[in-house]
């Protein structure tokens, strides 16, 4: 059974909000709200793969404590930009 685009967006949004640490819940739910609906299928695939990463690693990458792996660096930079944008 194939997942509809709407269900995929809902599932990825929920996975963004229900992480292991509260900081990543906030960061990724903000990013999901800002970006998921405009992402291509390939970008959603990349985001879904990113969601499989460890929360502690993700937090360190997003906050700039350690550099993100090259393959993830562009998306991590975008997440950081959205998460830490001035309100």
TrEMBL record:
InterPro entries: SDH, SDH_sf. Keywords: Chaperone. Pfam families: Sdh5. The keyword Chaperone applies. It comes from the Bacteria. Gene3D superfamilies: Flavinator of succinate dehydrogenase. Belongs to the SdhE FAD assembly factor family. This is FAD assembly factor SdhE.
């Amino acid at each position: 059974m194939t997942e509809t685009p709407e269900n995929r967006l809902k599932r990825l949004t929920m996975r963004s909000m229900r992480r292991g640490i509260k900081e990543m819940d906030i960061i990724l739910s903000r990013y999901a709200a800002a970006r998921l609906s405009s992402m291509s299928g390939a970008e959603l695939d990349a985001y879904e793969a990113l969601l499989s990463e460890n929360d502690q690693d993700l937090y360190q990458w997003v906050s700039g404590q350690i550099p993100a792996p090259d393959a993830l660096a562009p998306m991590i930079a975008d997440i950081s930009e959205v998460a830490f944008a001035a309100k």
